[in-house]
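Notebook p. 47: complex prediction with flavin-adenine dinucleotide.
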Amino acid sequence: MKFSGWGLTNRADARLVTISDAPTFAKALKNASNLTPAIPRGNGRAYGDQALSDTVWSSRRLDHILDFNERTGVVTVEAGVTLGELQAIFMPRGFALPVTPGTQFVTVGGAIANDVHGKNHHSHGTIGEHITAIELMRTDGTLLSLSKLWHRDLFAATIGGLGLTGFIVSASIKLKKVAGPWIDAESLSFGSLDEFWSLTQESSSNEYTVSWLDIKRNAVRGIFNRGDDSTDNPDRPAPSDRSVSVPFTPPIGFINGLTVGALAEGYWQLGKRGLGRTVAHYKPFFYPLDAIKHWNRAYGPRGFYQHQALIPADAAREGLEALVAAVRNSSERSAVSVLKTTGKRKRPGLLTYPIEGVTLALDFANRGDSTRKLLKRLDEITTEFGGRVNPSKDAAMSQETFAASFGEDAIRKFNKQRDPGISSAQSKRLLGK
Ligand SMILES: Cc1cc2nc3c(=O)[nH]c(=O)nc-3n(C[C@H](O)[C@H](O)[C@H](O)COP(=O)(O)OP(=O)(O)OC[C@H]3O[C@@H](n4cnc5c(N)ncnc54)[C@H](O)[C@@H]3O)c2cc1C
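Predicted complex, structure tokens below:
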């Protein structure tokens, strides 16, 4: 079958092996020599070549909820359950995921493998902070139970482990209590990065913050969103799940140099209309992009790159200015740019991405060499400021950028925990094997 990452820039033919239960998988691993090398795959939302290899083990049939303890809020689920499915089942019972990324179409296995963060990193950290146990299948056919007490080094390597330490069969997650599915939300506009920083400071007590940024030739502007779980559960209808879709990949992308300015203007006008306070349903608040299914196809057959840079707190203002200036001075324009701040939290995984600082995620239509030249420049700026590039969004960073991002020592410790039967196109690019 043909597989790609969400950005559609990396494609590969791979043999698909669907995993439907652990005992059969273990037996097959012990008896069949042609099941490896392979890479686990969830719902294909990583942008680049992370879930690509000659053989792909899909978790999508591991879709059962195994246990739920109403008293502790700990749910044990198979790895192919999506975060959206969990939210839909548990929100009505007064529980929610403590951390969720910007799309609900991510599996539990995929969320752990990139130790995902959301709009509340400063208050709830990454998903790994809330994982109490993992069942991991190694390619020798052994099923291991990992936690902070059992196989703790392998546990820490598997959280944010890019799929390279084994196949996550199931995991236990501690959910948080909520009154209902509503968020007390507020949107404000800003006209400069200084204003963005003032709003950030002013919003330090809000659980969620995220901003959309428009990088114009001579200025920036944006919409700052903040919110908190509502303590009320008003009896009002949830928004309909009907969504529009980009049904196929058009031969020429809709999002290109000619349309990107108009797209940003449209988004700005829409954002301005929504300024002020509101009670928002969690779906449009957490997952605004999910309203358009397969929106990645709008970039056309060449796809697009996302670059997410994290600049540490002590260099955040300067680093952010430098990244924005690099985009302005290039021939590329970012179609969607998102700013998030990250807090001082524990890093549960050896390769957990967030440290305290600010992240800037930029989406660029793939125009070939000129786009990759800009990505390289953004990598350089990020590491010059002591920052890191997000591997879940990456399709093009070099081994040197990865090493500068995560540090040789962490990478050495991580390599010791890797499963020798697992590799991906990304691992070959970033780790040499
Ligand atoms: C619109 C959009 C918004 C996003 N927003 C955010 C965000 O706010 N924050 C954030 O942190 N990320 C974000 N992401 C990135 C996304 O959360 C991650 O890439 C996530 O890992 C994708 O999960 P998946 O199930 O699609 O996995 P895939 O893309 O299929 O795989 C991703 C990685 O997980 C590994 N993996 C998958 N299943 C297993 C398993 N069972 N066992 C072991 N390894 C496994 C794969 O080998 C691969 O390394 C976003 C992505 C999109 C498309």
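Notes: The first strand starts at residue 2 and ends at 4. Residues 84 and 104 are 4 Å apart (CA to CA).
Next step: compare against the earlier run before touching the bench.
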